[in-house]
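Below is how a single chain appears once it has passed through the pipeline. First comes the sequence as given, then the structure the pipeline wrote out for it. We keep one example in the README because the format questions we get most often are answered faster by looking than by reading.
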Amino acid sequence: MKSMQDISRKRYKTIEVCELFDVSRATLFRWEREGLISGPSRDWRNWRLYTAQHIKEIKQIIRTRKSGQ
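Resulting structure:
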């Protein structure tokens, strides 16, 4: 069983984040460019790796947009 510390250390690939929130890669990258999401770290292939903090930021963006602000 994974501890909370293990879960908070999990890194998500771009495709996983896109599927989790039903957004396109272009949208995710645009939010990053606009500074709505802090820049994710990268792996040895230079692929983005999103953390639990990024997931929170994305949830906030989606909540804000749904509320019409």
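The chain has a mean pLDDT of 89.

See the next section for the split statistics.
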